[in-house]
Amino acid sequence: MTGDGTRVVRAGLPEPRPNEPTLPGPAFAAHFHLPGEVSGPYTYGREANPTWTALEEALSELEAPGGGAGTVVFPSGMAAISAVLLSRLRPGDTAVLPSDGYQLLPALRERLEGFGVTVRSAPTGGDAQLAALEGARLLWLETPSNPGLDVCDIRRLADAAHRRGALVAVDNTLATPLGQRPLELGADFSVASGTKALTGHGDVLLGYVTCLDPELTAGIRAWRKITGAIPGPMESWLAHRSLATLQLRVDRQAGSALALAEALRDRPEVTGLRHPGLPTDPAHALAARQMRGGRFGCVVSFVLPDRAHAERFLSALRFVDEATSFGGVRSTAERRGRWGGDAVPEGFIRFSVGVEDTEDLVNDVLTALNQAKG
Fold this sequence. Notes:
This protein has helices at 4-10, 50-63, 77-88, 105-114, 154-163, 176-179, 214-227, 233-243, 246-264, 284-290, 307-316, 358-372; strands at residues 70-74, 94-98, 118-122, 138-142, 167-171, 189-193, 207-211, 271-274, 299-303, 321-322, 332-335, 348-352. It is globular, with a radius of gyration of 21 Å. Strand 2, helix 4 and strand 3 form a beta-alpha-beta unit. Strands 1-7-6-5-4-2-3 form a 7-stranded mixed β-sheet, with helices on both faces. A 5-stranded mixed β-sheet has the order 8-9-12-11-10, covered by helices on one side. It is 36% helix and 15% strand. With 374 residues, the chain is of the alpha/beta class. It has 12 helices and 12 strands.
């Protein structure tokens, strides 16, 4: 089996053809030539597109290098999350969600409950969702969680859920398939926002779902067709192009994120410091067993004394953009409480480490912290 770097560079590419591009350009087509009866892979633009196919094959190779996986791409991460939850759950079913997951999960919970689905929630840390599994139809995990960076044991929870007849989905956005492979750990669905580290340039909205079970894949694909939640061919092509540098970006970001976390450990104004790569982090032991290649993600979270202190810190940064999202080549940071959807202190900072020189980035952060003290 090839290494991660070789795989990301070659994933999903067609067989070489003389005088043809290595990665064919995006196919812009609402319809395709269709003489006679309906047949062939491409009939109408809402159902399939060659550019989607190439990206889906690439993502399947990354999520399950052993083969056999199927991927369905969507126009955003939330479209992918919604496709799994809304296509699998029926009135009377029970779902278990993380109480500390992505900030739009509570809004999705309200919608599910309005459809007659019972929703239970528990924190990611300590595998707390185990206690809520009885009678569940679907277990949703997010590890590492966003923005708190807690980690749960995917294999343990998946085994427990399957014994109770529940399917298991894992939001793998923060880890990426280079840092973690949920399907190998027993999950039925690996779901991610491609908007973040997967594409990495902050210019594409995308999501995807990967399954090993062909029936589950077919169900997700049918949901996309029915709802029309389809990605644009240009976005799909940009995402596939970006995969070639995924390992370079992920490894650089993970190394710099750990260096930043280590630099923050001794700052008296910093509390609640979290990064799974820190040996002192409560999630480190589990993350080290479950996540691949020392890739613990690009996000560092910490708390400054109050809102004003956090805003002074953000304003003082030179090489870091104040923006939401994470995983991009340019470092970003934000006071997460400004959105109002996460249970975090007013001074909580979610910091996404980019690919700048590590020393420059760390020095910038320490200088900004000194200035923020006033």
